[in-house]
Amino acid sequence: MKILVTGGAGFIGSNLVADLVGVGKIKGQKIEKIVVIDNLFLGRKEFIQPLINQGQVDFFEQDLLDQAATLAVFKKCSFDLVFHLAANSDIAYGAKNTDWDLKQGTLVTFNVLAAMKDSGVKQIIFASTSAVYGEVPVRPISEDYSPMLPISFYGLSKLAAESLISAFCHNFGFQAWVYRFGNIVGFNGTHGVLVDFIKKLKADPKVLPVLGDGRQAKPYLYVADCVAGMIFGYQNSTEQNNCYNLACEGSTPVSEIAQMVIKALGLTEVNIQYAGGDRGWPGDVPQVRLDPAKLAQLGWQASLTSDQAVLKAIQDLIKQI
């Protein structure tokens, strides 16, 4: 099997690529080739450089907005499966640059799907997000919740991408696995609350500025569980368009994360300064609860709770940052 991972030098992508190299097969088929396309806007080539050096991964540094260059890679490599993870996952950045998610989310997804159609690739695994649901009641939200009214440009782009995938499945016989992630944390993290807090405290161990009022709470899924969940769903569901929440039990408030990071760094007497307001920035959904039951019915559940995932990720990131 020949596999493409878009965004494969990013946080989740690099963990996925390492896992695929390690297991060497998927759905019982030997993995013959793994190719990564990444523009390195958020990704870091060093995350996968050892695998490139060992000849286990082929790397193309290019932008998926370049339709001709994207199709050329598809034609050259004859893929069997695409993991489409490339996107702008920095919601705050997208709020400031309002066309960025349109380009790096929706249009990029169209280009990937068009290249699949033109090169005969039929299977896609897509990294979506809980942000597609928008601001919803504080209760575990299942995949059939409606209406879906995203409040961030990131969530909007992902929902549009899901719709594109659905249309390509219907019109061209594609098969898709769409995963709506909770907040993913862990090794190779490049941004987000944990990275932000660790960097701030390493720069100034006495003060920790925090966006919002600290009550924001979301399910934090450890990155290894995220990768395992994606692969499990792919191997155990057979509908034409499969859609799953990918999350863990529980949620963790930002105020508790701040205390966890402070303790892990061995600091005392830190002045936590909350900016106030119920959210960190426009487009931020302050309260998220996801129902993981649908994927659990297939036999998969996360190995770590939200709090456990945060604690493990903090230890990972302190060593890396």
UniProtKB/TrEMBL annotation:
Top-level taxonomic group: Bacteria
Gene3D superfamilies reported in the protein's UniProt record: NAD(P)-binding Rossmann-like Domain, UDP-galactose 4-epimerase, domain 1
Transmembrane segments: none
Residue span(s) of domain NAD-dependent epimerase/dehydratase: 3-247
Entry-linked InterPro entries: Epimerase_deHydtase, NAD(P)-bd_dom_sf
Entry similarity comment: Belongs to the NAD(P)-dependent epimerase/dehydratase family.
PANTHER family: DTDP-D-GLUCOSE 4,6-DEHYDRATASE-RELATED
Name of the protein: NAD-dependent epimerase/dehydratase domain-containing protein
Species this chain originates from: Candidatus Buchananbacteria bacterium RIFCSPHIGHO2_01_FULL_44_11
Lineage start: Bacteria, Candidatus Buchananiibacteriota
